[in-house]
Known about the structure:
Number of domains: 2
Strand order of the largest sheet: 4-12-11-10-7-5-6
Radius of gyration: 23 Å
Distance between the termini: 29 Å
Oligomer: single chain
Number of strands: 18
Structural class: alpha/beta
CATH class of the largest domain: Alpha Beta
CATH topology of the largest domain: Aspartate Aminotransferase, domain 2
Number of helices: 13
Shape: globular
CATH architecture of the largest domain: 3-Layer(aba) Sandwich
Low-confidence stretches: 1-7, 391-400, 468-489
Helix content: 25-40%
Amino acid sequence: MTVTESVPEEWASAQPPALHEGILRRQSARESAARTYARALPIVPVRARGLTVEGADGRRYLDCLSGAGTLALGHNHPVVLEAIRKVLDSGAPLHALDLATPVKDAFVTELFRTLPPGLAERARVQFCGPAGTDAVEAAFTLVRAATGRTGIAAFTGAYHGMTAGAAAASGHAVDVRVARLPYPQDYRCPFGVGGPRGAALAARWTESVLDDPKSGVPLPAGMILEPVQGEGGVLPAPDDWLRRMRQITAERSVPLIADEIQTGVGRTGAFWAVQHSGVVPDVMVLSKAIGGSLPLAVVVYRDDLDVWEPGAHAGTFRGNQLAMAAGTATLAHVRENRLAERAAHLGSRMLARLRALAGEQPCIGEVRGRGLMIGLELVDPEGDPVATDDPWAGEHPAPRGGPLPAAPALAAAVQRECLRRGLIVELGGRHACVVRLLPPLTISDEQAEAVLDRRADAIDAAARGHTAPGGSRPRPGGGHRRSPAHGRTAG
């Protein structure tokens, strides 16, 4: 398949410019100031298939945002459309609250078929509201009821949603008791060392906080974590650290909640990201790709936690039959076609090429990711490294200097240059300086090469045009070669 062949021939030519401009103008005038994607991506999608989106202005884009990871099979995949049509043509109810239906039964059967061994055999599932944040809130309600405790342990850089408890676990100041723990990473390690030592220090800190009666943190009702932090900047959790979190929580009877809302359904190269480490969580919160592009969210958990009362957590739209049908088709297609393995293989190749690009572009601080969840952190190559001396290193100091300053303006420029080249990407990370790739699992080799070509061109153009602090201009290529101390890769 070529990149152009992924676009149906029957797609019409460009709509009148007035349509495109008028819709954007009316959106700006009528929609809220809180809108996000629309600000950085001023396009009006009118058709889409697979990786390709066509705007009302006739331009075509390669979509590496994929509905923030929702579109595991890309836009309008035939198996998804067929599943939806089948329900529509059957006369089945489209809204059924939490009543049992054949469509729901098929979805749960397929979902349980994919769960990590050790959980599937004794799992229960709760359908909640249609968004991932509803699943997070339901999980918190569940573990509070099961343990009799109230607090939640979460990690710096996390994103778990926008409602009260989920927002608190994501770092927002609301009236929910959340203990904030260090999440390990290499390039901007909170302990200044990175690697296995940094991850070990993060684990030790967590253990100390939970065990110290004077830490101010009572034993929590649950611990929630992302196996790969997405909005936090595409930070894969080290497998040893994740296994240590499983051990720490198990020894203290603290349910471990894995937030697989963005990482699930093959995205990271395993069907569920926790499977890379062999960890079996007590609770999993799932949304995005499990609905096959339609709103759906569930909590899956160990049966011995199922002690909450009827109605403890509910939601009017938890019985979306179209989403369940689309989700069943998506889960089955990913499983039967081994798309998780495909994501692992293609993701490794894409990371290798991006790491080669990082060796030529001093504005790339780090390349990291897992499977088809990839991020590039952009930095100011002329800035002074952030000091990260390890006072505990003794005779064995950290083998690298500090990270370079974040470059959010440069990242925004790269996003704009990508859009000019017909490539849709998203930004994330602590300083909004991580350019993210979340292509559908169905992306072809040729499409992947086109994505990387356009991204490399965009970085080159943005770096040449970006004015660094102090008026100097970072130069691509050999202009400012980084020492090995200032550039790391994580996989």
